[in-house]
Amino acid sequence: EKSKETELSRLFFTYQGIPYPVTMCTSETFQALDAFEARSDDIVIASYPKCGSNWILHIVSELIFAASKKKYTCPEFPVLECGDTEKYQRMKLFPSPRILTTHLHYDKLPQSVFKEKVKILVIFRNPKDTAVSFFHFHNDVPDIPSYASWDEFFRQFIKGQVSWGSYFDFAINWNKYIDDENVKFILYEDLKENLVAGIKQISEFLGFSLTDEQIQAISDQSTFQAMRENSQETHGAIGPFLFRKGEVGDWKNLFNETQNQEMDERFKECLAGTSLGGKLKY
Ligand code: A3P
Q1: Can you quote a single GO CC term (predicted)?
Q2: In ligand 1, which atom is closest to the CA atom of 133?
Q3: Hey, which residues does 18 pair with through a beta bridge?
Q4: Which pTM value belongs to this model?
């Protein structure tokens, strides 16, 4: 029996206008992040929470392994902005290529990322499935605060009063850079439809030249089923929660018609006519 309560005001602290979970981020770490020294061969994976960053992280590590036989291991919690203030000092010792995942807006990434022209993969997922995945994550994982109901979570999600703030603000910000040379847009729904083609595109963007057989082998290991089966080994106790369902359209199980219309309205208001708006499968 869970004895968790929703005490929203205590869950977040606001840094530069965005709410972050107090259990994972601190303003001191954000300040230390400003001085982070990116390397030109770092790889950034950016996403709003629950859009599939662990999926892309897995694919990129497999690509690195296939291309160089270097087993990618990350001795730190992979999300760049989470951790203690000494994290970025320790990261100086990590071998290249380093993979940096982040839920930050493009404008809030450390300046060295742009100076070094670091390649950035940004993964998007339709906001309805993202919200549902985020809700389940809060309510399934024992150590993080849960919401009293889906309706309550939905209200907070629409207001952007959830960890890492508003999906739409994140999308509006990234939209400005989505067609940049160093930015590769990936869509969760496209990967679900054709994993081999998606992996091939990622591989080409990162400059690897792998055979069709190698790409196929990576695809076989990157299906939802394969990743879920190995999830406890790869991600520990949280594994089965991270690899929950892995489907497109799960929102239909929780959204009512009013919520559906409200989300459609927000989407139109924020992204209609934009480059990103045209790319999202919505
Ligand atoms: P669901 O909760 O809808 O199942 P993140 O890694 O950014 O936290 O995103 C987690 C979401 O990505 C979860 O969505 C998870 O199941 C899904 N996911 C992870 N690996 C996947 C894969 N190989 N194929 C499809 N979906 C995957």
Answers
A1: cytosol
A2: 2
A3: 15
A4: 0.96
Q: Which residues are catalytic?
A: 103
Q: Is the pLDDT of residue 76 over 90?
A: no
Smallest CA-to-CA distance from 64 within 53, 72, 73 is with 72
Atom 22, ligand 1: residue with shortest CA distance: 224
Pocket test for ligand 1, best of 243, 245, 247 (most atoms within 8 A of CB): 243
Q: How far apart are CA 79 and CA 82, in angstroms?
A: 6
| Domains of the chain and CATH, by start | 27-127+165-245 (3.40.50.300)
Task: Determine which residue's CA is closest to atom 21 belonging to ligand 1.
Answer: 224
Alpha-carbon span 90 to 266, nearest angstrom = 41
The model's pLDDT over 199-224, given as tens digits with 9 standing for 90+, comes to: 999 999 999 999 999 999 999 999 99
Give the residue ranges of DSSP H helices in the chain.
8-11, 27-33, 53-68, 87-91, 111-115, 127-140, 150-159, 167-175, 188-193, 195-205, 212-221, 224-229, 231-235, 239-242, 257-271, 275-279
Atom of ligand 1 nearest to the CA of 226: 23
Q: Give Cβ neighbours of residue 22 (< 8 Å, ≥ 6 apart).
A: 10, 11, 12, 13
Residues 6+ apart with CB under 8 A from 37: 88, 92, 112
